[in-house]
Amino acid sequence: MDNPKIPTPLELAWRRFIRSRAGVIGGILLLWLYLTALFAGFLSPYAIDTQRQDQGYQPPQGIHLVHNGQWMRPFVYAMVRKRDPVTFQLKYSEDTSKPLPILVFTQGEAYSFFGIPSSLHLFGVESGSSFFVFGSDQLGRDLYSRTLVGAQVSLTVGIIGILISFAIGMTVGGISGYYGGTIDTVLQRLVEVLLSFPRLPLLLALSAIIPAKWPSTWVYLAIVAALALIGWASLARVVRGQMLSARDLDYVSAARALGVSDMRIILRHVMPNLSSYLVITATLALPGYILGESALSFLGVGIKEPMTSWGLLLKNANNFEALNLYPWLLLPGIYIVVSVMAFNFFGDALRDAADTTSR
Residue 197 and residue 192: Cα distance in Å, rounded? Predict the structure, then answer.
């Protein structure tokens, strides 16, 4: 009789992960968000800087299937803007005499996909007309297209920021915990000073240093650097604690007795054992970077035009009058909420999966 196969630790971790329904849903949502960001040019019907001055603050257009009692392919009605004779406000209404069929895999405005020029879009309407899924902003720009392209900034800020902050935090924490003594004392006092500052005021101070004349790409990199310079301190303290407990283990003492260099011991023998913890910590820390960038852009000291991000899009909804008249301007905020919750659910599931004491 064959002996049953003993599952590997990775297989056991996978089984524990898939038992978490919230974690699986969070992982699927994150995959969907990053895929939409990757193919934003193809999925969005218009360029983010295309303006239609006569269609400012147009509400989202509903999709219809029946016109004059007859079934048709999915279509939208053209929108007509008129001034209310009582309030004198410009309001939109559907022109039910003019259905606009929604075209699939249609040619539209040019964009670049990893340097490859293309004009193919997933959907759109006939040339000369417009289809605003999420409505438009004050300049008549498609909010849906700007939200998808904004995901490229808001979602990558966290990844790049995590890479920078983890490199600093692991280096400082590893050296502090491994050597101890005076080095540990000096580095930990530096970490404590950095952690004593409130996060948002410190971010605002760092962002205020950025020159106003910098191009948007430089501003993006500066925002990432500011978030990373603040985010590494807490990680350094945790890595130090892990290093203090690992430096006296038998295999570390054996490597030291064989004359292995300190840096090799840290990088080859200690850090790999912390890899699962670091991955989980990174997943749980990513929402902080997304919220940090969104807060800075919302306050006007973050991402600048012509780039766009979820926080910058929410800046248009920063007063009660705008929220009352144009509630669709809050739609990019839903992406922020979904992404943050997805990261938290996914990170919690990873933490439970890595816990070998759970069944």
Answer: 9
